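As a warm-up, study this chain.
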Amino acid sequence: MRDLIVIGGGPAGMMAAIQAAAKGKKVTLIEKNEKLGKKLFITGKGRCNVTNACDVSELFGSVVSNEKFLYSAFYGFSNQDTMDFFEDHGLRLKIERGQRVFPKSDKSSDVIKTLARCLEENGVEVRLSTEAAGIKTGEEGVEGVILRGGQVLPARKVLLATGGCSYPSTGSTGDGINWAKDLGHKIKEVRPGLVGMLTEEDLPARMQGLALKNISLSIYEKGKKKPSYKEFGELLFAHYGVSGPLILSVSSLLGDKLKKGPLTLSVDLKPALTKEQLDARILRDFQERQNSNLTNALGGLLPKSMIPVILEVSGLGGQDKVHQVTKEARQRLLMAMKDFRLTLTGLRNLEEAIISRGGVSVKDVNPSTMESKQVPGLYFAGEILDLDALTGGFNLQIAWSTAYVAGQLEEG
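Now compare it with the structure written out below.
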């Protein structure tokens, strides 16, 4: 009889198994893929943003859903504890812009190797290419795990760390969420998070691949004069609309608002300049190129692929001569740069999302132990729970922290 079976060999599953085994428990980890950490391997563009080195109190500000639920988890196993864990087990780390923490090697495979080594050192039985089909329960609660072939692996406790529904090719197909639902848990609708957004206009497709850095972005809800979101950073144009760090945040923070109608995106291409300063800059460039056409004259102010779009929005032609531009037309040009607008109509799908939002309702889980309130002996950790955060290592920290707490196997 096993003390614990962990279903899912991702970050939460591996960490929970390590913690339980380190306490002397007999632990088996089953993973349906042929190797551990398949999704972890591609995180952070293959570099793996392990956590964020901000003050622990700041972690909560980056959580989008149910941050209060994470109080015990974040203080029980903080971002500093995460860094210490990996450093103590031989993985050297570094801190980059935005306090993002990466392995010094820039290889996510080194994070997976470290965890795999810890599993082995602590005597965790790892069964790869082994697919669970459900949870066996009785009157007293959990009794074990039912495998795809019908075999039952008996266990005193079971921990579900099957992830959400993003990147289904890595094995995150929502199985655990369905099992939890069948066992009586409330499920918050699963939807994409940290994902690109669709625009009504086709202008972004004409600038596909263009990344705008150091811009100011504001998002407005219908009928509201004050922006619901305003931030400085990077935006990327895509064939379907917009993406990039700022948009990924918007998709999680305001994505649900799209059910009520479109959102308006406003980009200030020159946030460091006031309207007066930008006008003076345009005038200076125009005076130096009085006989040039507008396409050439704007080369010092805008990226090449954006010039025809800004001119179109301004009602100007690329072949118009600089000396023919009226003051009124110049003002339209200026406003197109200070308030370039697009209409956000939807999100890209789960297959492209960095994370999925929603999952097992935290109201059905004890925040101090991660044990189910519905089924004794059943625990949860990681993305299967209705917890999500912004980019920057925060979602992985949720995985480490909830897994640590769950791995203590304390009963609620």
